[in-house]
Hints:
- One of its GO terms (molecular function) is D-amino-acid dehydrogenase activity.
- Keywords: Oxidoreductase.
- It comes from Roseateles aquatilis.
- It holds the Pfam family DAO.
- The chain has helices at about 10-20, 60-70, 85-95, 100-125, 145-155, 165-175, 200-210, 255-260, 325-340, 385-400; strands at about 5, 25-30, 45-50, 75-80, 140-145, 160-165, 185-190, 195, 215-220, 225-230, 235-240, 240-245, 250, 270-280, 290-295, 300-305, 310-315, 350-360, 365-370, 375-380.
- Helix 1 (about 10-20) links the parallel strand 1 (about 5) and strand 2 (about 25-30).
- It has a domain at about 55-100 and about 130-195 and about 270-360: D-Amino Acid Oxidase, Chain A, domain 2 (2-Layer Sandwich).
- The relative contact order is 0.21.
- It has 10 helices and 20 strands.
- The model has no long low-confidence stretch (mean pLDDT about 95).
- The longest helix is centred in the first third of the chain and has 29 residues, at about 100-125.
- Helix 1 packs parallel to helix 7 and helix 1 packs parallel to helix 10.
- It has about 425 residues and is an alpha/beta fold.
Amino acid sequence: MKQLVVIGGGVVGVTTAWALVEAGHRVTLVERDVELATGASRANGGQLSYRYVSPLADAGVPLKAIRWLLDPGGPLRFKPDGTTAQWRWLASFLAHCRGPVNRRTTERLLELGAFSQQCFGDLLRQTSLDTIELRSPGKLVVYRKPDEFGRVASRTLVGGPERALTREECLALEPALGDGGAEWLAGGIFTAGEAVADCHALSVQLGERLAAHPNFQGRLTAHATGFVREGDRVVALRTDQGELGADGIVLAAGLQSAGLAELVGLRLPLYPLKGYSLSAPINGVHRPPTVSVTDFERKTLYARIGDQLRVAAMVDLVGDDTRIDPKRLAALQRNVRETFPKAADYDRAVPWAGLRPATPSGAPMLGETPLRGLWLNVGHGALGFTFSFGSARIVADLVSGKPSPIALDGLQLRAA
């Protein structure tokens, strides 16, 4: 049994702390905010997309990015933030925008997604989480361009988990797509079994279960400020509330992990991908989509979570800026009202913006660092909710001296 510290109280940090106490370790959780899951876990898309994991870095993205940047309402916005870190990240991102690289990353992420789905099932059996609005309606990715849909459909395997659907089949599966006129719809790819849930509610409820666990040593509301080293080993965490000695420390603090790692000479290639969401109430007069829908061209996700429609969209590379841009919000409102005009009360929608910690490859960084006693569970990008359960189990196994349950090439610091 080890004495461990987990830094970060979002869904990744909470699931990591849970996996570690279940593995028999004593764990203290450090979170700077009073409440859990106030950052990227607060109002994200809520989709558990175990099989739709293709990273942003792909062969066609640079050319698409030019077109997106010319469109004020497009899914991508870039603004230089005056840092070398932004340009270094972009250069590495472009280096990953090659078909063979993307395919290798996608294969590894598919394996992580499948393992995470298994771990989520295990967690539900252990904890009986009952207020997380979990549904498994399947996921429909819709396409606006016939040639793009044709390319994707041609790669869909007969008898595999994904089915290519014509425009008419998409409308039969999800009639709400026709409420705004579906002339734009070229077709879609449907994957049964994909789920949606409330990430914030899950994080808070699992935090309550964690607090009652006999191996949990408590939660410290504090800012992590550095580490205490003895040679090549990290032996304690410094906080503004004092030091915490530990046999091991897990960095699971999203973007803040990069600054903390830099204090001990480690460079984590993380950059914030700013995303927006709307949470719009649903009542008896509305017709929200039943399945989880992703608009591929507009990079917009639609998911019913309880009595709300969650709409998540956009990738802004604008640095560490969580402010809600009125122009971006207005563009999202226009797209939503055009695509699903009858789905929810958009006049009462609650907007949100959050920073998703992403690596250039799109793959998270898990496991050990060159410093003994310091471990990583960071860089999940827009798939933190999806991957959190599997990555937590992997890190818990590694900290416990066990081999990883899946191959880690492409999922470690040295491969980022």
